[in-house]
């Protein structure tokens, strides 16, 4: 590919994915800017992108990884289109899962937020060293990094993304569906994580942490969910209890099983890969994660960003993306 053919406006969230959240004849969607509090409607080519985001200079040679990413996106688009069309993941074979796991790993590391987190961590480490009376420049391997350094680290993260693929592949894969009346958000950092377990000082967020839940919205009504296998085990144990009580003492069901219908739907997702309906609380939780993990922008097929506004009102720190704690 000639240099003149390489796009200068380079997306860190693929346009084919953003298109699944658009409305109207033109590929437009609603945008909420967490920093300014403003919302507007625009074309997908104008969002989740930056000029020459994947271009870099190495040993005085200008290089780019944009064409390689475009090739990966073409294959990922085929898989996601199939899921969205059938609203089903049961047709995915092992090769699809392997490739899609690599795509998820790539998406996890390619965003603006990923670079900003590294920049924030680097700055805080330098600041912590100074507060202890040391000069960062005199410590081997520690220095204040430039914008070019941060960019090169971001590029390297993309190259190293394959290391994360196995963490996605080994999860239990599910597909959840909502209605068009309660659409899903997507953001400039769409892969989100949550964990209901509390591990105290050690934290509970990480691709390999026990109990982790990973969400990746693929359309305004569908989201992929990748669960730690330990969660499937918990659901299966609860289901055994549910079956036992149904036969032995149905009166105890309501006291021990809060939502038997949802339990049955989850089990159908585990065993037959059936698509699982999202209720209103599920949608709110999913969308709140998109708000929390976004660097700056949240996207929607509707102009309803009341959830974003409510979250920012209660937690102004969410106007910026997730930050790393040092010390």
Report what the structure shows:
The structure is a single chain. With 327 residues, this protein is of the alpha+beta class. It has one domain (3-319). It has helices at residues 15-18, 66-86, 94-110, 112-131, 147-159, 165-169, 229-248, 253-256, 260-272, 280-293, 306-314, and strands at 9-11, 28-33, 39-43, 49-51, 55-58, 61-64, 172-177, 186-187, 192-195, 212-217, 222-227, 276-277, 297-300. A 5-stranded mixed β-sheet has the order 9-10-11-7-12. Helix 3 packs antiparallel against helix 5 (147-159). The longest helix is centred in the N-terminal third of the chain and has 21 residues, at 66-86. It is globular, with a radius of gyration of 22 Å. The mean pLDDT is 89.
């Amino acid at each position: 590919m000639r240099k003149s053919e390489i796009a200068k406006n380079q997306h860190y969230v693929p346009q084919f994915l953003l298109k699944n959240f658009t409305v109207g004849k033109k590929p437009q969607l609603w945008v909420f800017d967490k920093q300014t509090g403003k919302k507007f409607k625009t074309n997908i080519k104008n969002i989740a992108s930056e000029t020459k985001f994947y271009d870099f200079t190495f040993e005085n040679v200008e290089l780019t990884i944009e064409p390689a990413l475009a090739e990966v996106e073409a294959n990922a688009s085929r898989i996601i289109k199939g899921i969205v069309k059938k609203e089903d993941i049961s047709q995915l074979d092992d090769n699809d899962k392997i490739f899609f796991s690599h795509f998820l790993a790539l998406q996890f590391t390619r965003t603006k937020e990923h670079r900003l987190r590294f920049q924030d961590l680097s700055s805080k480490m330098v600041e912590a060293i100074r507060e202890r009376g040391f000069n960062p420049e005199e410590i081997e391997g520690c220095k204040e990094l430039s914008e070019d350094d941060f960019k090169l680290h971001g590029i390297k993260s993309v190259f190293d993304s394959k290391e994360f693929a196995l963490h996605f592949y080994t999860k239990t894969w599910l597909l959840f569906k909502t209605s068009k009346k309660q659409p899903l958000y997507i953001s400039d950092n769409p892969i989100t994580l949550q964990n209901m377990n509390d591990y105290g000082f050690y934290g509970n967020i990480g691709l390999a942490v026990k109990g982790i839940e990973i969400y990746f919205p693929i359309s305004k009504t569908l989201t992929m969910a990748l669960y730690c296998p330990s969660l499937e085990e918990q659901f299966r144990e609860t289901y055994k209890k549910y079956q036992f009580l149904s036969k032995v003492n149905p009166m105890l069901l309501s006291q021990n099983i809060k939502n038997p219908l949802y339990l049955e739907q989850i089990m159908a997702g585990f065993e037959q890969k059936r698509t699982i309906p999202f209720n209103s609380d599920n949608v709110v939780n999913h969308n709140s994660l998109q708000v929390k993990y976004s660097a700056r922008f949240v996207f929607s097929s509707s102009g309803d960003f009341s959830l974003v506004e409510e979250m920012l009102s209660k937690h102004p720190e969410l106007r910026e993306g997730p930050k790393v704690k040092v010390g």
